C-alpha cells in the first residue's frame, strides 16, 4: 500500500504525555495558530510554551 501524497501540509508533532501535540518552529508561528484556533473554534484562550523535549513550541489551553 503506497502512501498518497495529498499535498496537504502535515505539521510536525511530538508526544507530550499521552497526547500528540503540533510543533511550531517559532513562538510567532504558535501565537498565530493560537489566535486562529480561538477565532475558528471559539476555543478557550491558548497559551504558547516552549517544548521541553525539543527546539519548538506548543499550544496549551489554560486550565
Ligand atoms: Zn514538543
Account of the protein in words:
With 63 residues, the chain is an alpha+beta fold. It has a domain of 41 residues. Helix content is 24%, strand content 29%. The protein is built from one helix and four strands; from the N terminus they run ββαββ. The strands form two sheets. Strands 1-2 form a two-stranded antiparallel sheet. The radius of gyration is 13 Å and the shape is globular. The termini are far apart. Bound molecules: zinc ion. The site of zinc ion has 7 residues, from loops.
Report the uncertain regions: none
Sequence of secondary-structure elements: EEHEE
Structural class: alpha+beta
**What is the multimeric organization of the chains shown?**
single chain
N-to-C span: 42 Å
Q: Look at the structure and give the mean pLDDT.
A: 84
* Small molecules (ligands, ions, cofactors) in the structure: zinc ion
Rg result? 13 Å
Q: Could you say which overall geometry the principal axes of the C-alpha atoms support?
A: globular
- Main beta sheet, described? 2 strands, antiparallel
DSSP strand content: 25-35%
Question: Helical region count?
Answer: 1
What is the strand and helix layout of this fold?
Elements: E1 13-16, E2 19-22, H1 27-41, E3 46-50, E4 57-61
Antiparallel strand pairs: 1-2, 3-4
Zinc ion (ZN) binds at residues 14, 23, 51, 53-54, 56, 58.
Short description:
By secondary structure, this protein is of the alpha+beta class. About 25% of the residues lie in helices and about 30% in strands.
Amino acid at each position: 500500500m503506497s502512501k498518497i501524497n495529498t499535498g496537504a501540509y502535515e505539521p510536525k508533532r511530538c508526544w507530550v504525555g499521552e497526547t500528540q501535540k503540533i510543533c511550531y518552529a517559532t513562538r510567532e508561528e504558535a501565537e498565530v495558530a493560537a489566535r486562529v484556533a480561538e477565532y475558528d473554534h471559539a476555543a478557550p484562550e491558548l497559551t504558547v510554551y516552549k517544548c521541553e523535549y525539543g527546539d519548538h513550541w506548543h499550544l496549551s489551553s489554560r486550565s
